[in-house]
Amino acid sequence: MSSGQFETRQIGNVRLHVCPSTKFKTTMLVAMFQQELSTKYVTQTALLSNVLLRGTEQYPTMLDLKKKQNDLYGAGLFGDVFKRGERQILHFGVDIANEKYLHDASPLLEEAVGLLCEVITKPALEQDVFMKSYVEAEKRNRKQQIEGLVDDKIQYAAQRSIEEMCKNEPYAIFINGQVEDLPVIQADNLYTYYQELLYHCPLDLYCVGDVDIQKVVSLFEKYLPSEMFTSERNQLNPPQTTQSVQQVKTVVERLPVNQGKLNMGCRTHITVQDSDYPALLMYNGILGGFPHSKMFMNVREKASLAYYASSRLESHKGIMHIQSGIEIQNFEKAVTIIKEQMEVMRQGQVSDQELEQTKATLSNQFREQQDRAYEIVQSHYHSVLSGTNRPLEQILKEISQVSKEDVQKVAQKIQLDTIYFLRDQGGEADEKN
Amino acid sequence: MKKIEYKQLKETLYHETLPNGLDVYVLPKQGFAKTYATFTTKYGSIDNTFQVPGKDKVHVPDGIAHFLEHKMFEQESGEDVFQSFSRQGASANAFTSFTRTSYLFSCTDQVENNLTTLLNYVQSPYFTDENVEKEKGIIGQEIRMYDDNADWRVYFGLIEALYQNHPVKIDIAGTVESISKITKETLYTCYNTFYHPSNMLLFVIGAVDPGRIFQLVKENQGQKKFEPQGEIKRFFDKEPDVVAEKRKEMRLSVNAPKCYFGFKEAPTTVGVSGDDMLKLELTTQLFMESLVGSSSELYQSLYDEGLIDDSFGHDYSIEQGYGFTMMGGDTRKPDELVSRIEELFPQKVKKGISAEEFELVKKKKIGSVLRSLNSVEWIANQFTSYRFHESDLFQMIPTLEAITLEDVNKRMREHIDFARFAVSTVRPLD
Known about the structure:
The complex is a heterodimer.
Chain A: E1 7-11, E2 14-20, E3 26-36, H1 42-51, H2 62-71, E4 76-84, E5 87-97, H3 109-121, E6 125-126, E7 129-130, H4 132-147, H5 153-165, H6 187-200, E8 203-209, H7 213-223, H8 226-230, E9 249-254, E10 260-267, H9 277-289, H10 294-302, E11 306-314, E12 319-326, H11 331-346, H12 352-368, H13 373-386, H14 392-401, H15 404-413, E13 415-423
Helix pairs in contact in A: 1-4, 3-7, 9-12, 9-15, 10-11, 11-15, 12-14
Chain B: E1 2-6, E2 11-17, E3 23-28, E4 35-41, E5 49-51, E6 58-59, H1 64-71, H2 81-87, E7 91-96, E8 101-107, H3 111-122, H4 129-147, H5 150-162, H6 176-179, H7 184-194, E9 200-206, H8 210-222, E10 233-234, E11 247-252, E12 258-263, H9 274-292, H10 297-304, E13 313-319, E14 322-330, H11 334-351, H12 355-372, H13 376-388, H14 396-402, H15 405-415, E15 421-428
Parallel strand pairs in B: 3-9, 11-15
Antiparallel strand pairs in B: 1-2, 2-3, 4-8, 4-9, 5-6, 5-10, 7-8, 12-14, 12-15, 13-14
């Protein structure tokens, strides 16, 4: 995908990407570890994002760590996991004030690199493994977080529809982990896993801010152990993207809800690596990416069925997700309208206006990403993961060249795979096939 | 056009009040690709009873400010204004809060066309019986979505528990029942009252030349006629000192309980504006951060006791007429959490915040203001909100620097009063 003006330095087996920019008043540093998305690792990786933020060698308690952050003008320290295709990404970052804007502060960049590296590589230990009390507390929190998915019905329905659609594919795995793994995770085996991840999973470091590249390089070299750079890092498998749909699955699930959540999962058979990816972006934009899109116009504005009705892409796995919140009895009506919209696109019914509006709004989205440090990083990281680099100017050019015929060709490749509906507990018995 | 420089922040703001009363602010942001503009009226969900000079006092249905926001996108041409913004490559939206309704766009191209579109559509309402009816289905689904949203329910539940009379306790979107009473006539009444330029503020920030923006806005506004309007009177029932309900309980389809609690401000506190309001807000935020922020001893104890997790946070809202603190998050044991709060807060109030704690939270707050200043959306929205209170967003850092330990301890003692304390809990279904 598009990238900001990054300069990449290979330091041993680790990549450092720096985007010098004067437009931000803070400096952002991020470390991204890639892991295979697998039931073997998913819970441990997710748990590390919590345990490493509990305390370090120098700042052994969360309170010590928070005080240090406050002392650095509230350096924002974060850690989490997210999904890209069939990879699980564990990332940690820090966002710190640039001292140019402060009255009496000493240079903060070195402090920030030091703090991030401390969190990643020097956790608080007892008997050479993680602190047992931290691991146990974070297992409880993790359990609550995993089970808490159902508290957000929109997220819950999205995850459940993926699980139904991608049964037996790693993509179905819930990124926050699995409750059943927690009892076997202990301070010692989690620490062993952590060492493996630290030294052998692919690692990318990022820095965005008003910085000197060479300075950033030398700071990371100073604060990360040298074995981090010299150890061999694994090659991960690309995601499976070839599944063809035999029959559309319909799954209805019941919970005590007021509003029905309709999710439809489609296989696009196109990923960010393909040459027709820009045409897929256009297809998704015309169907459901914007307020001028077919879904918004037909499901919301014409039929008054929904407040939200949209589609979005997962560009590494090549999946398109459609989602809408509707009155329960309008399930059939909404599905019919959405299928009709996909059908008219297969027949090439896209107006000049739709094409031009989508080109304009899609290009705007790409250009706007350049104004947020975290989005600049994420956008560049897509290209690292896919091995396909489309700089901003190139993706804008490719979008501008997409024709209606290109969009129609994409439309003909797309297959609806699963219709998932979360509804209330009244009415007819469950229907499933 | 007046030029205001903020040297420490390296920002320059341009301002002018136009003859029709519209306040216009422009902030050029070097290096940004994007321009963001908000056109905001000082009119939100709480403004449900009002009067303009020479007219009758009016009481309108709950949720009408938000309904009106939805209907502004409709145009006489029959085309939704989203279509025009999309043609011009802009991403457009709007939102309604308790006290404001804001129309906005962001774009990286055709700034002047998009700005013209923004000014024109917000200043040309087009409501028909038919398009008003159609919206009831859409907003009905928006309300249903929030009904299922446990975080929203627990948040709003606390406001309902804190307030007896003030309309802040009414949901911004209203109810399916209340919006069924909305007609095009009531919409026009609200529109004509609150969308007068003298009640509005335009903020443009990003890749812009201030001279050209002012020229465009002045020409655009010069072509339109607005009759002068006197001051809008807003009526609010008297709010008693005590809370409506000490404990508000709900059951929803959730896995673990969610618990929010907070204190409402005393009637004497909520009348301030200008610099006093900014100082009040920042002083409250600083003591809250010292008391229950993630670097406080209290947070650590509750975390170690397994009563809170990292979803626990705190927030402060202050407007003319109401104000409250709010704390909470997910918890396995809401009742135990609340009893610990009732036990630990008085202890901390008695002991006071130390000089060391104070210096650290102050630094944290200064850093977080700088981080927020990276966001053009934050600047535009917050600037507008402060301006409506006659205070200045860009005075935040100097005001913070001037706050003393004594101010913060005094504010904490005055705010933490369990007579004005309420709890809202959402628990799983049986």
